[in-house]
TrEMBL record:
<keyword id="KW-1133">Transmembrane helix</keyword>
<keyword id="KW-0812">Transmembrane</keyword>
<feature type="transmembrane region" description="Helical">
    <location>
        <begin position="9"/>
        <end position="27"/>
    </location>
</feature>
<feature type="transmembrane region" description="Helical">
    <location>
        <begin position="75"/>
        <end position="97"/>
    </location>
</feature>
<protein>
    <submittedName>
        <fullName>Uncharacterized protein</fullName>
    </submittedName>
</protein>
<feature type="transmembrane region" description="Helical">
    <location>
        <begin position="47"/>
        <end position="68"/>
    </location>
</feature>
<keyword id="KW-0472">Membrane</keyword>
Amino acid sequence: MICKCNKQIVGFLIGLVVPLIFSFLLFKGRYHGDLGFDDFAITMFKLQSLGKLVSVSVLPNLLIFFVAIWTERLLAARGIVIATLLYTLATVVLYFLR
């Protein structure tokens, strides 16, 4: 059976969207203040902790990557790796942007 989700762009989009959803879920589950998510992200940037949030939010990409490998969707796995590398670059920039 031919899977239409075995495309590099699909993996790339999944790799970009899943960390955003996971960081929002972390925000909803752990933060009980009156700030919105955008104000929370700005505050995290000012406190120099946004890099930590981004690096934790990318962890679900690892699970999705392994599922893509196990189901032989190698092009999608490649896209997930590329998106994760972009998040890695953003994290490094956020850590050294002081």
